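Rotation project, supervised by the postdoc (A.L.). Task for the rotation student: set up a whole-complex structure prediction and record inputs and outputs verbatim in this book. Inputs entered:
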Amino acid sequence: DGGITQSPKYLFRKEGQNVTLSCEQNLNHDAMYWYRQDPGQGLRLIYYSQIVNDFQKGDIAEGYSVSREKKESFPLTVTSAQKNPTAFYLCASSKSVPSYEQYFGPGTRLTVT
Amino acid sequence: KNQVEQSPQSLIILEGKNCTLQCNYTVSPFSNLRWYKQDTGRGPVSLTIMTFSENTKSNGRYTATLDADTKQSSLHITASQLSDSASYICVVSFRNQAGTALIFGKGTTLSVSS
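Outputs recorded:
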């Protein structure tokens, strides 16, 4: 999985609770990304960060929040405001801008009931 | 509208056979096109990346082609193996006001049976 780790592999939460997904990379990449994958759909970008202490909203940022305090770490918080949080979440990193190859983590499957 | 369409949606073949997956895009201005392999429950892994000037690129039994004029790409898998069973995702990179963005296809699910 290219030096990117995500934890946990599976996560279960009750509706109304916030939950934070971990993403760490040791590739010395500047850029990091969070995607959501639902059955039958392409990956959709939630947030991305091209540099420490800076991040930008992707296509479906509502109900999510991120931080980038360290180059190696880009945690994603799924808040109670996210209407349909159950999904497969993928973290990725690249050398810099998205035109460079992205390396993906193993993913976290979040189930909210 | 920038879009990436993949076909077929799913495919079943016998071990040892060849197959070709298709990717058509309407993304502009084009930067590069990538093919990823995603095993069930895992993250995608890059197979090839092609720029505008590249027509063909191989990675072992995987060969990708790109026709930038017709905006079509294909991924050919030779002598398929059971381990080729996965989802194959076409991703097109394009330049926008923010810099560069990616459009992901929905993928083709390949099942190789013995």
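Student's summary: Chain B is about 0% helix and 60% strand.
Supervisor addendum: The mean pLDDT of chain B is 94.
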